[in-house]
Amino acid sequence: MANLAAVVGIGQTSYTTKRDDVSIAGLVREAAVNALQDADLTWDDIDAVIIGKAPDMFEGVIMPEIYLTDALGCNGKPMMRVHTAGSVGGSTALVAASHVQSGTFKRVLTVAFEKQSESNAMWALSTPQPFSTHLNAGAGGYFAPIIREYMRRSEAPYDVGIKVAMKDRLHGARNPLAHLQKPDITMKEVEESFMLWDPIRFLEACPSSDGACAMVIANEELADQATKPPAWIRGVAMRSEPTMYAGREEVNPQAGKDCAADVYKQAGIVDPRRDLDCAEVYVPFSWYEPMWLENLGFAPEGEGWKLTMEGATSLDEGGDIPWNPSGGVLSSNPIGASGMIRFAEAARQVRGDAGAHQVEGAKLAMGHAYGGGAQFFAMWVVGAEKG
Amino acid sequence: MSEQEPITGIEAPIYLKYNFTAGAAPARFLSQVKRGVLTGQRCPLCEQVYFPPRGSCAACGVPTQEEVVLADKATVESFTIVAIPIPNNPIKPPYIIANLVADGANLSFIHLMSECVNEDVHIGQRVQAVWKPAEEWDYAMDNIRYFKPIDEPDVPVDRIGKISVAGWEG
């Protein structure tokens, strides 16, 4: 049985297209310093640093962790880098948590980042291989056909994705750190935006952001002494599956279902919609909200879109299970950090520290990330209580 | 001296050129495609046919050895209409990238569709390869320029990837 661990400090940068005032080192340090301040701690209080980011090609800096030890105050301390594509921010938090839950370290700092402005992530995802024609379509080109298949199967109205795109930007307008600030966005504006990878419109896709997110995770003894309320880690799970095999279910991946079942079991969750107060879920393209509502068991298969259209996932409509109150990946996407932001925002909710996007009385929240060809999944459940 | 602009960043493009070590299954596939022949491999356990073959079935975790020659016809499993140009490619947006299941294969690969009305492309549609001239063939799937619609009945959605022979006749 794992020991109890909790998030005792959270730090984020603001998210924006181009942070040309800082280097990568400056960016990660900013998030880390914010997390230490939030935890009322100093560098000396940290036993180890766990860092994560998406593919090195995104900045063209290979193994950046090697030069970031200094900026993250871990000279003479253990440092470890995690990489699981777009889910890496979530996986990194889980690796950090496991180092505390196992008793290896008492208190760790975990950081994830992306500085997309340093390179071109879309082309970095499109390296030529001779057994496939070279198309350079990026993540949107990969996921658009899967979304089309979901639309066909579910017979969902055409504007579900449009609704999600508006809803998450309205949430983002409550979050001063969010990259996109669109408090006046309408469904009409989303619908009329440029079709990028049909059926994904420009405003149904995530932005390209610079940013970093950090957390301090401590064991039970130290978390009990924390100055601000801890977010107790109640369940942790990761799953993966191959990107390509005959008969693979791409719309509703098995690894996602298995990962959710595992994390719910640990946290004592029977019905996620009823038992959780909110969720921060990796939705880089709008239609992934209804798809993940089904994959994660918030709705029966084929009916996730109904929750979206009823307003169940909307803070502004007083929904019973707000998804992405922070604005989500659709409002800010520093890729490597995006998963950790989901995990950190779930923790902010149960600490009652989410500002204008606080879900009132939130006690139990989920953070979720996925990556690669929807082949890596990382999830945690955090609570205001130990269990 | 103090009049100089501070340097805040420099552009340093990176060009990566590398040799692709194909391994047994892709090497066989690539040498066949250089001759204009499409080959997949059948899993000995689940009997699913992989195209392009990778030498193993990721579902069963076993090597695949039995070679299956496929026709150059396929069915549209799904697709997207892309509005972003492909650098150094003569095909201008909007163009179709389709997930295609080759006849006799059981999972999709990605390729371009052209010679079609984008708005009429649909799941289940039948297509056939349009090859480059034979003298331009190399060890690459780019030997097929794109796929174009053909006048054959649609494959029902629940049978895409499940029909076993080329030349589906509805």
TrEMBL record, chain B:
Ranges of residues in domain ChsH2 C-terminal OB-fold: 68-132
Residue span(s) of domain ChsH2 rubredoxin-like zinc ribbon: 34-62
Protein's name in the database: Zn-ribbon domain-containing OB-fold protein
Species whose genome carries this gene: Candidatus Seongchinamella marina
